[in-house]
Amino acid sequence: MSDNPDDHKPMRPVMWARALLLVPFVAMLWVSSYNTAEPMIGGIPFFYWYQLAWIAISAALIGFVYWLER
Fold first, then answer.
1. Residue 49 covered by a domain
2. CA torsion, points 55, 59, 65, 70, in degrees to nearest 10?
């Protein structure tokens, strides 16, 4: 039997996965990258559908990070 405390470490959170949560934050702060009306999708300017797309991307990233850390 080993008395080494490192043998029974609980799993550490995956820190790089948490860094993925910064991606949507930075994407939304960099307004000049999406401050345009073209291209339009269904009459919706890029400015609006880009932000809406990031809602879905953010939800997927949060779900992925949750799955990794669970």
1. yes
2. 160
Strand, coil or helix: 6: helix
pLDDT tens for residues 1-43?
556 655 555 556 677 888 889 999 999 999 998 899 999 999 9
**Tokens at residue 6, please?**
């490192």
Residue 61: which domain range? 14-69
Residue 2 is assigned to a structural domain of this protein? no
What is the rounded distance in angstroms from the CA atom of residue 46 to the CA atom of residue 35? Answer: 8
The structure's pTM equals 0.73
Please count the structural domains in the chain. Answer: 1
In a domain, 39, yes or no: yes
Is the separation of the CB atoms in 44 and 17 below 8 Å? no
Cβ(65)–Cβ(17) under 8 Å? yes
